[in-house]
Specification:
158 residues; mainly alpha
Length: 158
């Protein structure tokens, strides 16, 4: 009799260990997003951990491992968008993150399908939205996001 979800393979266990910083940031992002005081006190630290996690993940297949769920991925994207809005001086660091995440099939699927994420992108000035999507490697998504055309499904990542 099989288990669901299936147990992690040895490779997944190694990936999870290597993904420690990214997983820690994903665990903390909802807390930081939950209220203004938490944002003010912890967003910089959580972003630093997320950025290191993204850099750790480059080229290792870590972002494709079945150790993140769509809600965590969606929350991370929304967090990154909000960091870009509030901290223009973080552009280069945010660019590093979105390039790494945008290159991942799993992470880019959430970017394409999440109505919540598209709404967060629409709330940015168009040039910031264009910058982020360009850095993700999906500049063509800009038209879809801004004009709500095509398969933009509300809550697709939930």
């Amino acid at each position: 009799e099989g288990y669901w979800p299936p147990p992690l393979s040895n490779e997944d266990v190694v990936l999870r260990r290597r993904a420690g910083r990214l997983l820690e940031s994903l665990r903390r992002i909802p807390q930081v997003q939950s209220n203004l005081k938490a944002w003010e006190n912890e967003s910089e630290e959580v972003f630093a951990i997320l950025r290191r996690g993204c850099l750790d993940a480059v080229g290792g297949g870590m972002l494709e491992a079945p150790i993140y769920n769509n809600q965590q991925i969606e929350a991370a994207w929304v967090f990154i968008i909000e960091m870009r809005r509030r901290h223009p001086n973080r552009r280069k660091h945010i660019q590093e993150c979105v390039q790494a995440l945008g290159a991942s099939f799993n992470w880019s699927m959430v970017l394409h399908g999440s109505g919540k994420l598209h709404s967060a992108l629409r709330s940015l000035p168009e040039e910031l939205c264009s910058e982020i999507l360009g850095d993700c490697g999906v500049p063509g998504l800009l038209r879809l996001v801004l004009h709500k055309e095509g398969p933009c499904l509300e809550g697709a990542a939930t």
